[in-house]
Amino acid sequence: MRGYRIRSEFGGSRLSRADPPETRRNSLTRRKYPTTLRFVPSDVFRALANPVRRQILTSLRDGPRAVNDLAGLFELSRPAVSEHLQVLRRAQLVREEPRGQQRFYHLETAPLAEIGEWLHPFERYRRERMRAIDAALDEQ
To answer: If you write DSSP's letter for every residue of 33-71 in order, what string do you get?
Structure first.
């Protein structure tokens, strides 16, 4: 069964030695689920779901930082940090500024303000629930 592909238990396919070397090399180095997904710019929640991206945003609160400075905060390679920055850039949470050979990233707060406005009614609901719990505990 030369060139026959068998689906693995994780959804990928195993390649036989009969496949051309280019096919084997590409399928072994290609990610099945890339970290840079295409999504609408207003989808900040997907960007904020990753703890590394949240830490990047936290470190940008004090001001703009170079990519190498941001990469030094994590035990990740610079390309991996660049992928996270690309996701944040597509979500419009950061802005890139080239300065000579370096790229500096700035925090963009407008999308975060939109999230805050959206979460406000839920925060009020949570506070009311906590007051009701406190009142019930005080009665006991």
So the answer is: S-SS----TT-HHHHHTSHHHHHHHHHGGGS-EEHHHHH
